[in-house]
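Example 3.2
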Amino acid sequence: MLSSIASLRARSGRKILASTLSIFLKPPHARILTRVQGLSRHRPFRLLAPTPCQLPTGLTYRCLSASCREDTDPPDSLSVRPDNDRFGSLSADMASRKLFRKSSSGIRDLRHQENEDEEASHLRPGRRNTPYWYFLQCKKLVKENKLQEALEMFSRDMLQGERLQPEEYNYSVLIGGCSRAGQLKKAFKLYNDMKKRGLEAGDATYTALFNACAESPSKQAGLQQALKLEQELHRKNCPLSAITYHALLKTHALTNHLQACIHTIREMLQNGHAVTQETFHYLLMGCLKDKEIGFRLALQVWRQMLQSGMIPDTKNYNLLLRIARDCGIGDTGLATDVLLRDCEIRKQRTGVSESRCKDIIDIDLLERQLCFQPDPQSDTQQDSRHREEFNSRQDSTYMMPIRKKENTSLPVNIPADSTAPNLLDLFEGKSSDVISLGTVDGACDRLALIGGAEGFLEKMAAKGLSPDLRTLTLLADMMEPGYQCLQALLKVAKQHQLKLDAVFFNSVIRKAAKASDLEGAKAVLSVMRQWNLKVDIQTFGCLALGCEQEKDGLQLLKDMAEAGLRPNIHVFSALIGRASRRLDYVYLKTILKTMSDMGVCPNEVIIRQLEFAAQYPPNYNKVSIHAAPEGTRSSNQSVKLFTTIRAAAIDCLNNQVLY
């Protein structure tokens, strides 16, 4: 070792210090003792001066203590130490080091991160998402009509994957999606799961549940679930918001009777909620369920809405048109007493009572008006009861059974400068010459009672409302078929800058086809091309309602093939219905053969049509009343043919091969 140190010093041109050699010549324990003793005996002024020593590996060892040198050198030898033995003068000794280990803050951080990753690999993976994040994702999927994906994300990723505790809003958004899709069982399954987790449902959850009951395909099941939920809320004494009450009102309007809607409105008023146009909208929706007297009930609700100071909106007007199209008015004599006589009583009120009843809804009065049952009474009893009730309730209108009178038709010859009678004007307190209601047979007559198409649109304009596409489509269903009515509706559409669609023109075509005006229905097709609209399968289905003869039906099928459309079950049902009504069995046989060649299986409607066609006696001539072509089958052969066809159709139905 000494020889190596000497060789290094020789190469570097330096002398070996005696103190350095003395350190390495002593044993290790002697060196430690010497350092301690030297430190205790001598404390020179250069105590912190480094003392270099050459290690065997070429590195330099420096001792801060002066005793390492003073064991061999006398104290006065500090003055004769060469100049190159000062602090910093021995840096050249480090030149023999050839390898350096690189290190930086970035490398140390990277090494630390790798160690953390190794430790984290042995631990449970951390949670990266929150319940609110899943709420936003499910809400996005529900808006995109991807309800099943939202349900899978909630159950698989959130509950099973990350084991997160869901919140009330996570369930509310999913129940709302189920309600819009009509999935009643799934909605209440989520609600029961939420209760098991100890979560308190809010107004949004209850509103979604009631909407699920209203939109359920099975109205009876929806009503039962709604009643159970309503009883549960009453037991909990849970206050509901106006939105939740409207959802409950909608459920009763679609699944229950009108009296249940009245009770819900009474509960709303007792809890301090205001009645709005939306409230009357759902009440009108309840009138739509009664197809026999729904139009009369809707007029009574409309009158109460105007008396309460409510201004109807566009949705209310559209719903009134729909009720006028689909529902009847019932007995015209009773409708005259209910709608006209009560208005006469209302005119006899004083101005004070009229202003006092403004902006106030009498729910008890409304219930009596809508839910009363007429009882047969004598004229004297009816008149006396009418006077008593009128004297006792001068501040509000009271509806009661009144003696029926003979119908008096309205005058046919109306002056050109006069306007048609409008019951909506009468409800607003305006004078009218209407004495009684005449015969109300169809939708056109019911539309005439509310002013016709022109008067109805004028009434909307007076309220500051503009018709929408739904309004014009309903008017097209109710107006008399003809080119002039179509041009009037097109003018209104251009005036309000409405973009008509194929549904509107299909309504016009269907109206003309039902009136056996096939040429007028085909003329609408040219108008559709002017509005840059293309025909669809529904268009040909409406045209099929006017194909009375075989050539018209075959031409329709040919036109559909040229348009690249395949006839569906609804098109064939319309053609079979026309053929069976005309008793044209040749036409019916051709349609059935074409239907069989195209592989379209019958449904229940077609089977009922075939059963109707086979109900005639065998000796009846089941050939078309018009000139029949040669080779027509006899009546017995026709009966045998259609009995076979009916059996085959029922067999297809039993095998559930339906479209």
